[in-house]
Write a structure and sequence with these properties.
The complex is a heterodimer. By secondary structure, chain A is mostly helical. Chain A contains twelve helices and no strands. Chain A is elongated and about 85 Å long. By secondary structure, chain B is of the alpha/beta class. Chain B folds into two domains: 2-246, Rossmann fold (3-Layer(aba) Sandwich); 272-354, no CATH class.
Chain lengths: 277, 369
């Protein structure tokens, strides 16, 4: 039993005796000043907990997206080169297969294959990037792959569709009539104008992947934002849950801002919107 | 001259010189397999073109003129195309070449200008790059030399401040300027043949004349041969040596330009010419149009392909396809049983007028229209 006096003192310390709007304003004020509060559980500042967890999740996201794009872009281009050709049909089949497998199953499957059967990569755990790069990558590769495969299928399909449309454009005929080699036409002429949808989809996808990472972090026991959130929910450590939700939301907004900026980089027409009539 | 010099300085292999015509097209046929059936877009076309000469190819939309120009180049879709016939260019048979071999001819020996400058330039690539990339690829010039030549090219096609324009994207230029750029692109490697596919159709009337004059000047200065494809007889009138009129995939009349206008034999040519408004006409004169529309290239009529729309059409035109026959002027050929300006033609036209019919069922235009 907690004495009534101690309870009141604790409530006061946590600001729970203020009105709800008052608490909210206080929270906003603190957050904007970088103070996300302290963990109810162990007294550690929330900021510190998030700071430790965030790099893990960010690395996971970055790696997974790198893998997805590095594989999806060439495959998408090749599939678009001969629509409904053998390569296109096989890659489409594989892509839909990957899309149909849920991440938790894919993760377990990868663990079984690479960790249990062949002992190539560790099944769980994490080494921070700053400590040992090789070890870090070893731990990161399976979870990144799990996260990547779903994105990969989507990216490939989206790029393929746009690429097919671009290859029908007049300026591609112009490039052909100039006698430029096919690889040059695909990479220098067709790829960039075909990436608008890909960039949009990737932006939204990365946003949702932040939560997708929760599952993967749980499966592989990675000390990222996902695992932090999940364990905090179980422990009813509301301060941390609040903070991770904030981080995810900010992350989503920042990524979509970057996507908008990327449009301008890809398409000069959006930069000079005023110049066109 | 410029083309020759380029090739020598860069060690580019010169094509074998022959004394014959630069381009010889013989019985060229290009069909497309579609869900509806075989589209006979080009159906047995033959002509030849000498160095430094200009051939105008005239026809309505859907007459096969654009497919003809692409087919000559070999610039066709990879699948569902059936092409036969011969295309000899500078002594080489283009139809026998693989696409990889054709790439050494495209842009280098044969340049192409397209219809719509709004869509034929890459929207996300700077103008300079679009000109220099073929120079660098084909002639192996370095960055600085490519740039220097691009400036000279833009200057020669009449673009002010060429240095600045190199860094522009196509959307920063007007339609006329863009078409000048596409011409510069086509001329970059000094081709001996320029295929211009409706180069002025998408442009303002005031700009059309400028672009046509530019093409004519470039052609003269570079001693290039040119195939000028258009639906507008007015465009080719003063700017070609010879005109081929196409209808439903076939050449229906071909003659030296002056002859074609003064002594046309094919009723279709006459109808095309009549459909051009004349300054001498009083205002509010009803424009003479060709009734009906070009035939479906999947289900072509038997006999003459123009008979359903022809004011001269007789039973024979339905039954038998007229062969290409020679007129009195050398180089003048036409396909017609009842040619314009002959007693047979006059009789046929009079008979149709008396009976108040035209084979398509539309009323016959009053005499003198």
């Amino acid at each position: 039993m907690i004495p009534a006096k101690g309870l009141a003192q604790c409530r006061h310390q946590l600001g729970l005796d203020q009105s709800l709007p008052g608490q909210y304003v206080q929270y906003l004020d603190n957050s904007l000043h970088g103070n996300l509060g302290t963990s109810y559980l162990n007294g550690q500042t929330v900021g510190k907990a998030v700071k430790q967890a965030l790099p893990v999740t960010v690395e996971l996201l970055v790696l997974s997206q790198l893998i997805a794009l590095v594989v999806a872009v060439p495959l998408g281009i090749l599939a678009a080169l001969r629509p409904d050709g053998v390569f296109d049909q096989v890659s489409t089949g594989v892509a839909f297969g990957l899309l149909a497998i849920p991440a938790f199953m894919l993760g377990v499957l990868l663990v079984y294959l690479f960790a249990v059967s062949f002992h190539v990569f560790p099944a769980t755990g994490w080494t921070p990037l700053t400590q040992d790069l090789g070890d870090n990558l070893k731990h990161a590769i399976l979870p990144s792959l799990t996260l990547a495969l779903g994105s990969l299928a989507v990216y490939m399909r989206v790029l393929r569709t746009d690429m097919i449309a671009t290859l029908r454009e007049d300026f591609i005929t112009t490039a052909r009539a100039k006698g430029m080699p096919t690889s040059h036409i695909l990479l220098r002429h067709a790829l960039r104008p075909s990436t608008f949808a890909l960039v949009t989809v990737a932006g939204i996808n990365i946003g949702t992947l932040i939560t997708g990472a929760f599952l993967v972090e749980f499966i592989f026991q990675l000390p990222g934002i996902g695992l932090l959130t999940l364990s905090s929910i179980y422990a009813r450590d509301y301060g941390i849950v609040q903070a991770t939700v904030l981080v995810v939301a900010v992350g989503f907004v920042v990524i979509n801002l970057l996507v908008d900026l990327l449009y301008a980089a890809i398409d000069p027409r959006t930069r000079h919107a005023r110049a066109t009539v | 001259m410029r083309a020759r010099r380029d090739r020598q300085t860069t060690g580019y292999p010169a094509a074998p010189e022959t004394s014959g015509p630069l381009l010889e097209v013989a019985d060229l046929t290009t069909h497309f397999r579609t869900g509806r059936g075989m589209v006979r877009a080009v159906d047995g076309v033959s002509f030849s073109l000498d160095r430094g000469r200009t051939l105008g190819v005239v026809g309505e939309s859907g007459s096969g003129k654009t497919v003809l120009s692409r087919s000559i180049m070999g610039l066709l879709p990879r699948t569902n195309v059936v092409r036969s016939g011969e295309v000899r260019f500078a002594g080489r048979e283009l139809t026998a070449l693989t696409e990889a071999e054709l790439r050494d001819i495209w842009g280098v020996e044969i340049g192409m200008v397209f219809q719509d400058p709004m869509t034929s330039l890459n929207p996300v690539m700077r103008v300079g790059r679009q000109i220099t990339e073929s120079l660098r690829h084909h002639l192996g010039v370095d960055r600085a030399e490519g740039r220097r030549r691009a400036v000279a090219l833009l200057d020669s096609v009449g673009i002010p401040e060429p240095e600045q324009r190199l860094g522009d994207f196509p959307h920063q230029l007007s339609g006329g300027m863009r078409q000048r750029v596409t011409i510069a692109v086509a001329l970059a490697c000094g081709p001996r043949l320029l295929m211009a596919d409706e180069p002025t159709t998408a442009l303002d009337v005031t700009v059309q004349a400028q672009i046509l004059d530019l093409l004519a000047r470039q052609q003269r200065e570079r001693y290039m041969a040119m195939v000028l494809v258009t639906h507008d007889l007015g465009v080719v009138a003063g700017r070609t040596d010879e005109i081929a009129v196409m209808y439903a995939g076939k050449i229906v009349e071909k003659a030296p330009t002056r002859t074609l206008f003064s002594d046309m034999k094919m009723p279709y040519t006459e109808a095309l010419l009549k459909s051009i408004p004349k300054l001498a006409d009083p205002s509010h004169t009803t424009l003479s149009v060709i009734p009906g529309r070009p035939p479906d290239l999947v289900n072509l009529p038997t006999g003459c392909r123009f008979y359903p729309r022809c004011p001269y059409a007789q039973q024979r035109c339905r039954d038998e396809e007229p062969p290409l026959q020679e007129a009195t002027t050398p180089g003048h050929v036409y396909r017609c049983w009842f040619p314009v300006g002959t007693p047979e033609g006059r009789d046929a036209l009079d008979r149709n007028r008396r009976e108040g019919r035209l084979d398509a069922g539309a009323p016959v235009a009053p005499a003198g229209a």
